[in-house]
Every structure is written in structure tokens, then in C-alpha cells.
């Protein structure tokens, strides 16, 4: 490539971008419903275990692999494998890029609903709707569905077109503090609703029997990987924009922690509010799009809270979608040696065209979301793990991760990366296939 690689300006900017990638629809939309489905507080045990043991290790690996090679997955896998005389690195690295492209498509469809909700929530008539279930179904209707998908992709393309430090870093510096502020305000609002106590009791009464089911563990790992954006793609690319003085172990820990906080915060906002208004907490996917507007409709100050809530969800979704699309944009620039702007335009354009069938049909959409996020994504994370923890000499990997760190990891970390990370991830991928999760 002609010019040098772009960089994040500051460590805090990098961390905010990674938190931006991690905290997304996975936290605000999927986590509360999975928590309800898989045993409430009991689900937190496998979830937290996977986030901290497996997730943090994987993040260190992805940031480190990106920073060491200065490349996205195709270039990074190639560089490591070539040293061992293996020439299929680029092909192997195209797997995470292709999967991420599939994610770009469905993630933009769902983010487009959020853009539309933000717009609509500014009109006081929004909360006067009689039936939000019907409104949700109308999201899939022709012209408007396509229009909002276009608007959503245009917003992301405009940000990405500005580049890494001005676009991605700059926007996350605003969006992330705002998002956490919104979550805090919303937690207080939910907790002070009459009848919220029932929701807290529900969250705090674990159904331990769920822990005896392998599916709970498989879902917890799938959810943990999805939530911290682990799939050998986005975090490798963000890592590739790092300078050598960034503290990778610390950044990984912070990313995972903010991600967990956001997931818990979302549950603390949604579940008590849902109970307070006597709605079924196991509503699943419609929780955010159908149940929450119903809650806002009956709540004092609902107009204001619905705006800030959906703006918060929008910031979470857009900042994740940016990191997802950036993988594909970077892959395209790398493969075809084009400018960033051209690459952004081409990828957004293709995502738009391929997104249309999904924007018009919820059944196709949910099948693809489950298939990609539960089966295909963890395989990308395993591939990156194999490349950086097994094929690359582990001592070299640990040294690379420790460069610039005030909290270097010791030798104890090596078997965790090599055996625990790889072993558990492969096991869960197999379990998921056996138990037909999804
Ligand atoms: N972590 C994001 C979320 O929770 C989704 C994501 C997956 C982002 C993979 C980047 C890569 O919504």
C-alpha cells in the first residue's frame, strides 16, 4: 500500500473505539432476552467466566496480532503462516472477513430500525400508537424499509470515510460517554417505577437447573464472543491501528468490563420496567422494539425517556457497525489497493443491495443472525487463536502482547491461551452443532 497505515491518536481513543465495537445490539438487545431465557442470574456464571477467562485472552490475542502485523486478518494470518512456510494464510484470513461481511448486512438492517425509531420518537404522536406489535411488523414493508437501510448505511459510510482517528476515534469519544450516561439515567428511571421491585426479584432469582444444560453453556460462550466482538476480525483490525505504547492486557480487560457493565445495565433498565408495566419479560427479540415503547407510553416523562433511550441504542449499534464494516473496508483496500473512500462506497453499496431481502423479511433475518452469530463467528475466533497462539511461537506472542504494558502477563498466561482458549472454544463450537443451538 502506498501510504502508511492509519493510527488511533491516543490509548483512550482506542479503548473507547473498542468499547464502541463491543457494546452494541448484543448487549442492549440480545443480552436481556438471553438472560431471561437461560436462567436469569444463573446465566451470569458461565457468561462472566467466558468473558473474563476466554474473552479477555482472545481480545489480547486479536489486538496483539493486529498490532504485530499492522494488518487485518488476511494480511495478518498470511504474515504469521508464511514464516512457517505455509502459504494459505490469506485464504484462511478471508474467512473472518467474509463472515464479517455477512454480519455487516444483518447488523445494518437492525441498526436501520433503530435509526427509524430515533427519528419517530421525536414526534409526540409516536407514543400514541395503539399497537407497537403492528408497528414492528410494518418495519418490513417495502419502500420505507429500504429507505431506512440506505440512511443507516450512509451514516456509517460518512463516518468511516473520514478515517480512523477523525472518523472512528472521534465519533466514539462522543458516543460512548453519552451512551453510558443514558444507561445511568435510564437505570434510575426504571428503578423508581412503581412495581420495579418484581423485576429485580426476577433478575436475582437464579434458575440453577439451567446450568446443568449444555445449551446454556454454549449460548453463554456464543453470547460472550459476540458481545466482545471476538471473531478474528474487528479487533484484529482495530489492533492494527495501534502504536507500540498501548497497554494491550489493560485495554482488553477494560473492553470486557465495560461490555459486561453495559449488558448488565441494559438488563437493569429493561427488566424492571417491563415488570412494572406487567409485560412478559420473556418477550425475546421484540423487547426493545415493541415492549419498551409500550413502557414509555405509560411512563411519566415517556416522551423524553424514549428519545434518550433510542439515541443510546443507536450510538451502541452504530459504533459496533462501524467496527464491523471497517473490517470489510480494510480487506477491500488491502486486496484491491484502493482508496478508503472508494472502498467504503463499494462495501456500503453492496451491503445495501444484499440487505434489501433481509430488510423485507424477518424470518430470513433471524435465521441468518442465529446461524452467523452462533455457528460461524466463533470459528473465526478459533482461527485467529490458532494463528497467534499455536502457529506463532507462544513466547513471541506473549512478548508482543506485553510491549508497552504496565500489567504484563506472565508465563501462566501461555497455557491459558494455547489450551484453555482454543480447547474451550472448539468444544463449544462442537456442542453448538450437536445441540442445534439457534
Ligand atoms: N459486539 C457487538 C455487539 O455486541 C457485535 C460485533 C460482533 C461487533 C463482531 C464487531 C464484531 O453488538
Topology:
Elements: H1 11-22, H2 25-37, H3 44-69, H4 73-83, H5 89-121, H6 132-138, H7 142-161, H8 164-191, H9 196-204, H10 214-227, H11 234-240, H12 248-276, H13 286-298, H14 302-336, H15 340-359, H16 362-391, H17 394-402, H18 413-435
Helix pairs in contact: 1-8, 1-12, 1-14, 2-10, 2-12, 3-4, 3-10, 3-11, 3-12, 3-16, 3-18, 4-5, 4-16, 5-7, 5-14, 5-15, 5-16, 6-13, 7-8, 7-14, 7-15, 8-12, 8-14, 9-12, 10-16, 10-18, 11-14, 13-14, 14-15, 16-18
The structure holds phenylalanine.
Q: Please report the first level of CATH classification, the CATH class.
A: Mainly Alpha
Q: Cα distance, first to last residue?
A: 41 Å
In the CATH hierarchy, the third-tier topology is known as: Hydantoin permease
Low-confidence stretches: none
Tell me which CATH architecture applies here: Orthogonal Bundle
The total count of helices amounts to 18
Reading the helices and strands in chain order gives: HHHHHHHHHHHHHHHHHH
* Estimated share of beta-strand residues: under 5%
Say how many strands there are: 0
**Any ligands, ions or cofactors bound here, and which?**
phenylalanine
Structural class: mainly alpha
Amino acid at each position: 500500500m502506498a501510504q502508511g497505515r492509519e493510527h488511533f491518536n491516543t490509548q483512550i481513543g482506542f479503548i473507547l473505539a473498542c468499547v464502541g465495537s463491543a457494546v452494541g445490539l448484543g448487549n442492549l438487545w440480545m443480552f436481556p432476552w438471553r438472560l431471561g431465557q437461560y436462567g436469569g442470574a444463573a446465566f451470569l456464571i458461565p457468561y462472566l467466566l467466558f468473558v473474563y477467562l476466554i474473552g479477555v485472552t482472545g481480545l489480547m490475542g486479536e489486538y496483539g496480532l493486529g498490532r504485530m502485523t499492522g494488518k487485518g486478518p488476511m494480511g495478518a494470518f498470511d504474515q504469521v503462516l508464511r514464516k512457517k512456510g505455509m502459504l494459505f494464510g490469506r485464504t484462511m484470513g478471508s474467512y473472518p472477513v467474509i463472515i464479517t461481511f455477512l454480519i455487516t448486512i444483518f447488523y445494518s438492517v437492525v441498526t436501520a430500525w433503530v435509526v427509524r425509531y430515533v427519528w419517530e420518537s421525536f414526534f409526540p404522536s409516536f407514543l400514541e400508537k395503539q399497537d407497537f406489535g403492528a408497528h414492528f411488523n410494518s418495519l418490513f414493508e417495502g419502500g420505507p424499509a429500504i429507505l431506512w437501510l440506505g440512511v443507516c448505511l450512509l451514516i456509517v459510510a460518512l463516518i468511516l470515510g473520514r478515517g480512523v482517528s477523525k472518523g472512528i476515534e472521534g465519533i466514539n469519544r462522543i458516543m460512548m460517554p453519552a451512551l453510558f450516561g443514558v444507561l445511568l439515567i435510564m437505570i434510575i428511571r426504571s428503578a423508581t417505577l412503581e412495581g420495579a421491585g418484581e423485576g429485580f426479584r426476577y433478575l436475582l432469582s437464579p434458575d440453577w437447573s439451567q446450568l446443568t444444560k449444555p445449551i446454556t453453556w454454549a449460548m453463554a460462550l456464543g453470547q460472550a464472543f459476540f458481545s466482545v466482538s471476538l471473531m478474528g476480525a474487528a479487533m484484529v483490525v482495530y489492533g492494527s491501528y495501534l502504536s507500540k505504547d498501548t497497554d494491550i492486557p489493560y485495554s482488553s480487560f477494560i473492553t470486557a468490563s465495560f461490555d459486561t457493565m453495559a449488558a448488565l445495565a441494559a438488563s437493569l433498565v429493561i427488566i424492571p420496567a417491563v415488570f412494572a408495566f406487567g409485560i412478559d419479560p420473556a418477550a425475546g427479540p421484540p423487547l426493545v422494539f415493541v415492549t419498551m415503547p409500550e413502557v414509555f407510553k405509560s411512563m411519566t416523562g415517556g416522551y423524553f425517556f424514549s428519545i434518550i433511550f433510542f439515541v443510546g441504542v443507536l450510538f451502541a449499534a452504530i459504533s459496533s457497525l462501524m467496527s464491523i464494516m471497517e473490517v470489510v473496508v480494510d480487506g477491500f483496500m488491502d486486496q484491491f489497493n484502493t482508496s478508503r473512500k472508494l472502498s467504503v462506497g463499494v462495501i456500503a453499496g453492496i451491503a445495501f443491495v444484499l440487505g434489501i431481502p433481509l430488510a423485507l423479511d424477518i424470518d430470513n433475518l433471524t435465521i441468518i443472525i442465529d446461524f452467523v452469530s452462533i455457528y460461524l463467528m466463533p470459528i473465526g475466533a478459533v482461527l485467529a487463536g490458532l494463528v497467534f497462539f499455536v502457529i506463532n511461537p507462544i513466547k513471541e506472542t506473549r512478548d508482543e502482547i506485553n510491549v508497552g504494558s504496565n500489567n504484563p502477563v506472565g508465563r501462566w498466561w501461555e497455557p491459558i491461551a494455547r489450551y484453555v482458549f482454543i480447547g474451550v472454544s472448539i468444544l463449544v463450537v462442537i456442542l453448538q452443532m450437536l445441540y442445534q443451538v439457534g
